[in-house]
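Appendix B.2, paired examples.
Example (i):
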Amino acid sequence: MHMKYFAAICQTIFFFSLLVWLYVVVVQITHPSWLSGPMTHYDIPPFHMKVDDTGILSFAIAALSFLLWRSDSERNASPR
């Protein structure tokens, strides 16, 4: 992977993970009974996660990608 795309990839992962987390928060507020159900109707293991587990995982991925994005930005901004 080229390092010039690293920040863009981290930003994209951060943005979409945050959107998934916000979706789960809205589901938690409006339909709390859906939290124990699957995120999708596919019976394939990564897609058959519970809604609340998906929210936890997406929040962790968003935090990690934000930290990687910011550390890459600071590393590129510092004089060498």
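Example (ii):
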Amino acid sequence: MIYMFTLFAALLTQAVSAEVITNVTGMTGRLETITCVEGATVTLTSNAQNVYAKAEAECKVSEEAEFDACLQAAIKKYTKFAPVKFRGDAIVGTKQFEMRINPAIGRGQLFYSIREGFHADTNNKGVALMFNRVGITNDEFLIESSRLSQDGNKIAMLMVPVRIRFLPDQLYFFYNCNLNWIH
């Protein structure tokens, strides 16, 4: 909830393209890959505000240094474990990003999409990825992270919305993800 309210203001004022530039968080470069392999938790998108409200209520007395860990623990408490992994790869020479959610063990694919967009900083010193499906407007897809590590190569939590035809929209929370920037 905290992340969602600050994100739209950040996107309007601090939007960046996939070109090599310095971001407010101090990262320089183009985000090339995101990998999250430790599993995830998931909830229906319609339940996300309820999850955020409960997590915020539990963590509002936490010190800022402890807030991220508290928020992560609270979100895990109110969402269901999903044995999946996430990978996002920038497509060379474009602003397109290929995203996949696969089972953690075995083969198969639960979600696949190629999106076009940009990355931006958020007020919480994280990164946001704003995409549209290639060639289709009014189909926004927003991925948001918790704070970047000091070196900018790790995030504690990544929030990925998933829309699959004929199924309710879901929101996945991936944990301990790695980022790769090309400088």
